[in-house]
Structures are given as structure tokens and as C-alpha cells.
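Lab notebook, bench 4. Still working through the backlog of constructs that have no structural model yet. Next entry is a single chain of 611 residues. Request: give me the C-alpha cells for it.
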Amino acid sequence: MRNIIRIGAGTDGRNRFVAIALGVALAAGPAVALPAAALAAPATDAAAASTTAGTTITLQGADGASLAGHTFDVYRIGTYTDQILNGTRISSLGVRGDTASNAWAADAIGIANAYDPSTADDIGKVYGYDDAGNIANIKMDSQTRQLRNISKALAQSSKKPAAIQGGANLTTTQSTLTINVPSEGLYYITDSAGNPIMVGTKSGNANIMKNDAKDPQWRTLGTAVVKAKSVRVDKKVQVQRNGTTVGKDGTTNDPVSVTVGDTVTNTVEVTVPNKQAASAVKFKLIDQPKGQTYVQGSLSVRLKNAPQTDITADAVIYDGTTQNNAKSIPGDPTLKTADNKPADPDLAIPAGGWGIDGRKLLDKYSNRTIVITYRMTVDKASVTDPPTNTIHTYGTFTDGIHFTTITDQDKADIKAYDFTLRKVDAGNVNTLLDGARFQIQRNGKWMNLDWNTGKWSDAADQGSATVFVTGDTNHDGTADNRDDASQRGLIRFKGLGYGTYTVTETREPAGYASYAKPTFTVTIDDAGTSIQYRGTGTVPNLTSRLDNNTVQVKNVANLTQLPQTGGVLAFAFWLACAMPLFAIGGTMAVRGARNRRDALMLTHDGDTPAV
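Model written out:
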């Protein structure tokens, strides 16, 4: 499969194509060093043969800065095809992946496109391209957000192949690092101390290429600048899963679900900007929640490689109460960009969030990775409107004259799910039953629901736990003509997250048997794509899963409606239920006969003359 994009017509009248559209490094995103070709030259200008002899990529520290402290891993996205060369210039070429790299690329495109529900920044799949070619087709000049997203997604993908041979854990103490690669093509290089890099090798002796036909600038391939001016951030939500604390990204590939009302721990890893080599002068962070509220006083800061070193006192925290109730982190109006715009504006503190002025962190821990830990209470969440939490980082740098602010961000989505209980007559499942009462437990604890806020909490005991009534839509404890008739027989449990819940019927509807009240469990995973329902009561087959979000629960009116399946268990239950009834019936029969005999005796005595 050829990966091609039409650029223009060659002088011989035939169309020439190119697939590479990646360019020079973005200020706050990945370093990219592979621009698109110009108008294709005639095929007679040069041969289009690929060579692997002496193929290298050279990484350079910005402004001659040392690469010490950086560890690089190199991965191949695709190899060059259909090169058209003209001396040292590349007129056009394509990129083609192999099985492993295409699987990786396809997965990464899916991850990147899921970052934002809007499709405006989606990475398209072009007819005639494989997935490696679709990545190469991203335009460096007009699709900077797509470049940033795909660079991050390639790192997150679980299908990332092994590093190329000899391309893992590469380090140097020098300002340059030359890497031998197996073939000419497009490569992805991760940097332990910076942003990932996408870079294309030269092709034969040709090492310069234009972004497109109208671009006057030729760009060099085979080299990439490792930029020290970065504030890369990684945010995770810490939750308990099967008795273990795990960090979840809160993405489509790594979802996290929690119950509304729960408090979750968040961790943020960020490298403090390099004050010396990169001339960083400002460092700030803003946390922006939606559907969540920061737990006052829960924020702490530690060094990543020295977790016992608490440096919270060096973080100037703004959370609406500290710093004299300031609602924003003040900027410095004297810092101007090259076009005389403010480089360090005031940063407002979002409602329910927090901010950090990192001026002390910058002074003391330049180029060190810190871990920020804090807690958030989930206020509201639904399937259609999930709560989010976005961390924004700001680093302001100077070239000695002007100032530039570089930003990065990472977002974690939290999910919560709903399910509906449908209460029906065992003899006719189309008959919906109002008035059945239920209570719900999690981890052995009865649960309360605040109807006004939608928040769940643990109850002290069953007596103080919330009672749910089928058909009761105004939550007054009864189902009557004041409730929504369209919700007859239903209870909607909303805002539940990961875990197993036990739902118990505590009172049957009027006219139904008290000895056959069902109990069942509901198991929800982080993805919420397969919610499981399982009956656990003495009577089998009263609970059934109608669909992912609906469980049907039956009530029986008499013994004849008990399930006709279940073998020995069902027979034993029926017998256990029936024996007391038989005993009661026998007792009533004996009592009736005795009463009739006594009546006869009384009559006889009344007819007998007194002696």
C-alpha cells in the first residue's frame, strides 16, 4: 500500500506525491523534524532507491546544552518509499509501516482522537494510506494540535512495539547523540527528561526538504533539537482496585469510574523547568475541575526520586482560602513577548480548583521531577456528562531580551454509570409493580443517597440507609398518582462507579409473597461496557439481565408462580415453604373439627333437662 498525498504536477505533466508532512519542533509539543515535500520534480532528476548504509539520526541539545540526564528510546514508525531526489534535495517521498508499527499507529490515532469529544482535531485516515502514513500526513504548520495529540498517544499506546535494535536506554554526557537506525524512514524517540521527538532520516545524500510547494524554507532531515524549554505534565487518578492502589489515566484506553460522593486521590508528575540551561524565569500550575471539588488542605508536593522529601512548604498554593483569599496567581506585566504581548498574565483560580506559584520550586528544584498529590470529591457525574480534571502547566523562558511562555496540560475523565431496576409480576412480566422497597450495599456497608445532590455515602446501619420504592419518582416513600406514571415499576440507581453492589428487596408489593423477596448483585467495571447482574436470594431465577443498564426482578403471588427450574434447590425451597403451610392447614383442620364437636356438645347439653 502506498501512502501518498497529492502536492502538485511535475514538469513532465505527471502527478507526483508525498506523504510526509511533519516539520520542525513545536514550542510546547513534540520535537518534529520531517517536513513535507515541495512540488515534485521529474522522475529523471534522481533515482529513488532507499539505502540503509550509514543511516543515522543526530540529537542535539538546544544551544549546545548537554544531553546528560536524558534517556532516549527509538521506535520506527515507517520506512521511506518512492523517493524522488535532486542532489541534496528531496522532492517527494512516502512512508510505509510494517505490521507492528501500523497496529501501534492505528491504536495511537484512536487514542488521540478520543482526547476531545469534538472531531475538529481528529487525525483523518486517508484512502490509500496505511496507518503509519496517516501519521506522516499530519501537517506541521496547520495541524499542531494533532501533532501534539499523536505524540502523546504514541507513548500511551499499549501496542507500542519494542525499540529498534540498539535503540533502547541511550544516554550521553555530551551535547549531541548520534543514533544508528536500521533503515531510512520516520522514527519516534522518547525522552525521559523532555518531550517525545518525531524525526525523519535523510535519504541517500539528500537531507533537505520543504514543508510544501509554497514554503520558501528548506528544512534539514536526520537531526533534531532536544528542547530543554518544556513543562511536560502527567496526571493520574489513584483508586483502589482489587485491594491495590493503581493509577488510572482517565482516558478511553484507561478509564476510571467512581461513585458520586466518593473522594479520589490525584497525582501530577511534572518536571520543574530548567532555570540554568533553558533560562526559565516563571513556573506555575492551575488545576481546573468539572463536577469535582478540591479537598482543602489535601495538597502535598514531593520529589519523585526522594518520596520522603516533603517540599509542600516551597509551593505557594492558591485555593480560594490561602494567600489572603486571592482568586488568581498574579503575573508580571513587565515580561513581554517578541511582539510586545504579555508573557506572564494573571492566572485565575477555577472554582473548586487550585493553583501553585512555583517560584520557590524553580529556585530550589530546577530540572527536578516533582509529584503533586491532592484529593477531589466527585460532586456529580453521569454517563453523558462525565466529570473531568485538567492540570495546566506554565513555564516562562527568556532569551535575554524577550519572554516566551510554554504550556502543557493533561486531563483525566471520571465515569459513573446508571442502571434501572424493573419490578414485574412473575406470572406476567408485562405487569409492572409499584411499592416494592429496596436497599443497596457496597463493600458490606449500607448506602445513603442524597436526593438533592445525587451524592452517595455510607449509612451507619440498615435502618438509616436510603429506601428505594418502585414507581416513587418524587422520593416521598410511596408510589401514587403524584408520581410519573411513565416510571411505574422502576427504580433508577444513578452515579455508581467501580465495584460490586448488593441490592436487597426489603418489602414486597402489596398482594405478593413475603417468602420470595429477591436479592441480587450488580458488578460495574471501569469501562462500564458490561454491567453484570446476578441473583443471590434463596429463590432462583427471579433476577434477569435485560440489557447492560436494566435488570428485571420478579415477585411471586403464590407457590404456583415459583420458578419451574432450579432442581433440588428449588424443590427444597418449595418444600420448606410448603411444610409450614401444610402444618398450618392441618392445625386449622383439627381445630375446626374440635370446634364442631364442642358445638355439638353444647347443643346436646342445652337440650338435656337438668338432673
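Notes after review: Residues 1-52, 565-572, 596-611 have pLDDT under 50 and may be disordered. The chain has four domains: 5-226, 233-410, 417-561, 567-605. Flag for follow-up if needed.
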